[in-house]
Amino acid sequence: MKFEITHETSYLFSSEVFLEPHYFRFYPRQNSYLEVQDFSMYIAPSPKGQKQILDDESNTVVFCWFEGMTESLTITTKSIIENKPFNPFDFILYPQSFNEMPFKYDETQKKSLYFTLEKQDISKALSDYGKDILKASENNTIQFLSQFTKQLHKDFSIEYREVGSPMSPDETFILKKGSCRDLAWLQINVLRHLGAAARFVSGYYYFDMEVPAFELHAWTEVFLPGTGWLGLDPSHGILTGNTHFPIASSAHYENTMPVSGGIRGSANSKLITELTIKKI
User: Fold this and answer.
1) What's the burial of 184, exposed, middle or buried (CB within 10 Å: 0-12/13-18/19+)?
2) Residues 6+ apart with CB under 8 A from 13
3) Do residues 228 and 35 make contact, with C-beta atoms less than 8 angstroms apart?
4) How many angstroms separate the CA atoms of 253 and 199, rounded?
5) Which CATH architecture has domain 2-84+258-279?
6) Residue boundaries of the structural domains of the chain
7) Greater confidence, 162 or 243?
8) CATH architecture, domain 96-241
């Protein structure tokens, strides 16, 4: 099955500004069941120069620099992606010790996974929330990850918030509601406190709906030897499948933002986005 994804992002400034160098993260990540067959990016104003690079976490990034003044910045991308059948449960964990949590990575893995194991403080209540689900899952790794993801979907209300960083895990836990990025960041931090390497993923998610209204999506990936990075979508209570289209992943959400860069000037800005995903 093929999908066409068109994503337009516009910043409108209240007065002219100078655009500092910018990083754009819109290129979908390929894997064994997702093939990017075509990708195009249109940027206005046209950059003085641009270069496609891999960042330090192997995400494809378009780095651009500009000249002159402008009252707007628009990035329009179009991706054609073909997916293949995919069973997210078609794997084994190896060594077998990883079938039970908490587990321990070997020393080499600890070094390469260092930042995805980095903890931030969370409350005892939130820590106990994760531990209670782990206990109910009899410490079975896959049962726990699946149930934890389902439980977040059940216990929290999802709300749309177009801009802003994720709330702190404890704030989301207290409110019992949040955006997709809030739930992902909560899940990531609970997993890290249980000794599992976890990272933040931004991308697109397609599912059938009567009135299509898509938006940039966020979810979690956890590293399990034998399967690699396993995707968990707490907003929908599922493991990620072949209609989750990842763009960028990082130990920290700031490094997955689709647009990052500064301006010179004192203008206010307004963000307008439009995203369409359709089968072709």
Assistant:
1) buried
2) 70, 71, 72, 73, 263, 265, 267, 268, 269
3) no
4) 8
5) Sandwich (2.60)
6) 2-84+258-279, 96-241
7) 243
8) Roll (3.10)
Asked if residues 198 and 223 have their Cβ atoms less than 8 Å apart, the reply is: yes
Q: Is the dihedral of CA 119, 124, 126, 127 positive or negative?
A: positive
The pTM for the full model equals: 0.96
DSSP for residue 118: -
Phi, psi angles (nearest 5°) of residue 103: -120, 175
Helix axes 141-155, 124-136, angle to 10 degrees: 130
What token pair was written down for 49? 């120069």
Helix, strand or coil, per DSSP, at residue 74: strand
What does residue 191 show for φ and ψ, rounded to 5 degrees? -60, -40
User: Residues 93-97: contacts with CB within 8 Å, 24+ apart?
Assistant: 93/141, 93/142, 93/224, 93/225, 93/226, 93/227, 94/225, 94/226, 95/225
Tell me how far apart the alpha carbons of residues 249 and 135 are, in angstroms, rounded to a whole number. Answer: 29
Q: Is the pLDDT of residue 126 over 90?
A: yes
Task: Identify the three-state secondary structure at position 114.
Answer: helix
130-151 average pLDDT score = 98
Condensed to tens digits (0 to 9), the pLDDT of residues 49-101 reads 999 999 999 999 999 999 999 999 999 999 999 999 999 999 999 999 999 99
Half-sphere CA count of 163, side-chain side, radius 13 A: 9
pLDDT over 90 at 162, yes or no: no
Retrieve residue 147's tokens.
């149930």
User: Taking a C-beta distance cutoff of 8 angstroms, is the pair 77, 7 a contact?
Assistant: yes
